[in-house]
Structure formats: structure tokens, C-alpha cells
Specification:
The chain has 484 residues and is of the alpha+beta class. The strands form four sheets. Strands 12, 13, 14, 15, 16, 17, 18 and 19 form an eight-stranded antiparallel sheet that branches. Helix 10 packs across helix 12 and helix 15 runs antiparallel to helix 16.
């Protein structure tokens, strides 16, 4: 009987036991050959340099390389890879462009990194329904280039040219969120390969409706799940009409308080601003140097407005009145596309501008979000704390939706300085929670904010998440060591 049971088990799980005795960083030859049989030898690598490239993102978290990297070409291969790893008990780490900031791609338990960038097709464009279906290798810039002549665009813009399925996985946001919302507001459906290889369409195969009351919100469950529940192999996105006219502006302020107060007053006045970004004087100076701008070195707002020509004139007039009441100076409008692009390119390169302030160091980017009514309080206090900390850093953020970042420069080999940076970030996260905010507005939990998540949602919230994870991923193979 025992022999028959072992035989049956072997047929069900033919690879089980092949790697059970192997240490992290080493997969057995037969299992690697099984991976190659799925994707082909040219689409698999166990080279150390390739594994290291896939074991880190833009964060300060230490590189944790996977044991192997594979590049599937289609969803069928992803499904077969997942099933193979599931039978063997090998961790699976999804990988997009590697632009995350919370260590979300670090292979803390080894395993197989599934790089999805070769799946880069735009599968279906429904212009009349304002929706599009894309594979995980399609980036936001590639999508908008494809949409250029359609009169439509996808506005969620986290700065980096991230993959759209990766943006769904992390619940990304960005400069346009104040008007167009985050990924949570713009994902209509997801195709997900579950840990055991089964294929799930979270809103039903091929569906792209705008609203539904049909059962649990499975799409919302996977948006922001950070690769811990499954591999997103396609996403259906909400598109928006391209604005008739666009105008950007910059204005400098005598203090951080004045700049943030202007943000709050603009929102309270119901001005439909599309973008409103805050840069403190340190960041403004860094952007001037890195992007060759000539802005006043002072706390500054970058703004942008979308709409008809008539609507824009009204928005600009009202905004100028509000910021002048708060002491704004050096007010400048940018109406030409080239000039606007120069401003927003500088804003998107703020991360690299900050890194240039202290060459050789790593960046540590905090990320909190609070109710608008508490925004002035937390930003002003954070600026005071930063000045008193002795750390090198700056403040920048999407203040129109209460979200901002401190970008801190740290020598990763200096344990004492790294400890002070992490303590500063934890203190900021807890201050946001005390003001009824969140410890992360867009970067996600990853490896670094798991304790803050527990404090944010409470013991019952964390236990509920664990139960959901256990149902979908009973072996704990999907991106282990993240979120929970």
C-alpha cells in the first residue's frame, strides 16, 4: 500500500523532492531542466550577475538574488511555471521593471524570479468603451505612445516608466492622482495566474464594465497585493479623454507652511487641478542642478491644469489669487508642450536629482499620506525634524492628495546612519497614523513597512489578510517575506 501511495504521489507531483535538500542559491539540475522545458534554454538564467540584477530594486534593502530567472513569453508558460514551482515548493517572485522602493522583488527565500517583460503586447483597445487590455511588459509610456492618435490617454504616472501590471500589483499612484485617481481607480479587470497555475479573471473573462455589484471585489483584492497572491499576466485599464488644453505653472513661497496652505486652499476652492506637486528648497536646488532649471531656490509648487481654453482661464485666475494670498512669488506659466515637458521631466527625475546631492550613497524614500486637513501640520513638523536630524534629505510629494515623501541619502555601509534613517522613517509613518493617515500612499509595504501595516490595520486586519493569503497561497510561495 505504501508503495502504491508513493507511486500515486509521484505521478501527481513528479518534481517533488528534487530540490528539497538544496541550499538557497542552488536549484537541482533536473528542476532547472524542467524550467527550460517550459520557457526554452535562452529564456532562463542562473548566472550570478543576472540573479543579482533581479534581487534588488531602487530601495536600500540588501540584494537578495533568486536562484534562477525565467522570461516566459505567454500566459500559458506562466501557468506551467507556477504549477511546476507549486509542486516542488519553490518560491515565485514576479518581476517587472524593478523600479520599486520597498524591496518588493528581493528573493528573501530564494526561488524563481519570473520576469514578465517579454510579454509586452497591447491585446485589445476599446476606444468607445475607454478601456485597453495590456500584458505585463507594457509600460505606461509605451501605452500612451500607442494611444497618441486615439484621443485617449492613461494618466496614472508614478514617475518611473514602470510596467502597467507592476503598477497594478503595487497600487501605484503619481502626479495625476489628484484628478484621475490611482491604479485602484483605473483597473477594471485582471488576468492572474494563481500560485498553483490556475488562471483567474477577477471580473470575468473579457469583461470591462465601469461598475458592478456582483459579488466580492476580486480585482480590488489583487491591486496592491505586491505579488503575494498571484502573477498578474494582463490588466484591463480605464482610459480617459486627452485634455483639450493643458497649462503648467510654478510658484515659489516664503515657507513650507505657505506652500502647503496654498495646496489646501486650492483644493478647498474646488479648483479642478490635474497636478499639484510640492518641492522643498533642498529639492528645488537639486532639481535646478540636475535638470538645468532656473527656478528660485525656495519651497515651490508645480501645478498643471487640464480642460477647455475657457475653463483654464478661470482655473488659472483663481489659483493665482489663492497663491498670492499666501505670499507666492516668481509665478510662471508654461503653456507650450516643450516647456511643460521640461518641468515635469525635472519633477520625475527628482529621485535622481536627490541621489546626485551625495554621490555614492543610496536613497531611502519615505511615503505617507494623510487627510488634506492634516497636511500642513505633518509636512511642517517633518521639515523641522529633518532639519534637526543631521541627515541629508529633502521633501517632495503629490500633496494634492495628501501624499508626500522624504528622500534621505544614506551610506548603506554605515550601520549607524542607516539606523537613524530607518528610525526617522518609522517616526514619520507613526505620525501619519496618528493623524488618521496611512504609512504608505503608493510605494507599498514590501519588506520595510510590515510592522507599520500591523499598527495601521490592527491585529484583526492583519489576521484577515493572512487568512486570505492562506486560501490563495497555502504554501506561502508567492513573493514570501513581503507585506505580512
Amino acid at each position: 500500500m505504501a508503495r502504491l501511495l508513493r507511486s500515486a504521489t509521484w505521478r501527481l507531483f513528479p518534481w517533488r523532492g528534487y530540490c528539497s535538500q538544496k541550499a538557497k542559491g542552488e536549484l537541482c539540475r533536473d528542476f532547472v531542466e524542467a524550467l527550460k522545458a517550459v520557457v526554452g534554454g535562452s529564456h532562463l538564467s542562473t548566472a550570478a550577475v543576472v540573479r543579482e540584477q533581479h534581487g534588488r530594486d531602487e530601495s536600500v534593502h540588501r540584494c537578495e538574488p533568486p536562484d534562477a530567472v525565467v522570461w516566459p513569453q505567454n500566459v500559458e508558460q506562466v501557468s506551467r511555471l507556477a504549477a511546476l514551482c507549486y509542486r516542488q515548493g519553490v518560491p515565485i517572485i514576479p518581476f517587472g521593471t524593478g523600479t520599486g522602493l520597498e524591496g518588493g522583488v528581493c528573493a528573501v527565500q530564494g526561488g524563481v524570479c519570473v520576469n514578465l517583460t517579454h510579454m509586452d503586447r497591447i491585446l485589445e483597445l476599446n476606444q468607445e468603451d475607454f478601456s485597453v487590455v495590456v500584458e505585463p511588459g507594457v509600460t505606461r509610456k509605451a501605452l500612451n505612445a500607442h494611444l497618441r492618435d486615439s484621443g485617449l490617454w492613461f494618466p496614472v504616472d508614478p514617475g518611473a516608466d514602470a510596467s502597467l501590471c507592476g503598477m497594478a500589483a503595487t497600487g501605484a499612484s503619481g502626479t495625476n492622482a489628484v484628478r484621475y485617481g490611482t491604479m485602484r481607480d483605473n483597473v477594471l479587470n485582471l488576468e492572474v495566474v494563481l500560485p498553483d497555475g490556475r488562471l483567474l479573471h477577477t471580473a470575468g473573462r473579457g469583461r470591462h464594465f465601469r461598475k458592478s455589484a456582483a459579488g466580492y471585489n476580486l480585482t480590488g483584492l489583487f491591486v496592491g497585493s505586491e505579488g503575494t497572491l498571484g502573477l498578474i499576466t494582463a490588466t484591463t485599464l480605464r482610459l480617459h479623454p486627452a485634455p483639450e488644453a493643458t497649462v503648467a505653472a510654478t510658484c515659489a513661497f516664503p515657507s513650507v507652511q505657505a506652500a502647503v496652505d496654498s495646496t489646501v486652499h486650492i483644493l478647498q476652492a474646488a479648483v479642478p487641478v490635474a497636478r499639484i506637486e510640492f518641492l522643498d528648497e533642498v529639492m528645488m536646488d537639486a532639481c535646478n542642478r540636475y535638470s538645468k532649471l532656473n527656478c528660485l531656490v525656495a519651497p515651490t509648487l508645480f501645478l498643471e491644469f487640464h480642460g477647455s481654453q475657457q475653463a483654464l482661464e478661470e482655473q488659472l485666475q483663481r489659483t493665482e489669487e489663492i497663491v498670492q494670498q499666501n505670499g507666492a512669488s516668481d509665478f510662471s506659466w508654461a503653456k507650450e508642450a516643450e516647456e511643460r515637458s521640461r518641468l515635469w521631466t525635472a519633477r520625475h527625475n527628482a529621485w535622481y536629482a536627490a541621489l546626485a546631492m551625495r554621490p555614492g550613497c543610496k536613497g531611502y524614500s519615505t511615503d505617507v499620506c494623510v487627510p488634506i486637513s492634516r497636511l500642513s501640520e505633518i509636512v511642517v513638523q517633518t521639515k523641522e525634524d529633518l532639519n534637526a536630524s543631521g541627515l541629508t534629505g529633502s521633501i517632495v510629494g503629490h500633496v494634492g492628495d495628501g501624499n508626500f515623501h522624504c528622500i534621505l541619502l544614506v551610506n548603506p555601509d554605515d550601520a549607524e546612519e542607516l539606523g537613524r534613517v530607518k528610525a526617522f522613517a518609522e517616526q514619520l509613518g507613526r505620525r501619519a497614523l496618528a493623524l488618521h493617515g496611512t504609512c504608505t500612499g503608493e510605494h507599498g509595504i514590501g519588506m520595510g513597512k510590515r510592522q507599520l501595516l500591523r499598527e495601521e490595520v490592527g491585529a484583526v486586519g492583519v489576521e484577515t489578510m493572512r487568512q486570505l493569503k492562506a486560501v490563495l497561497d497555502p504554501q506561502g510561495l508567492m513573493n514570501p517575506g513581503k507585506v505580512l
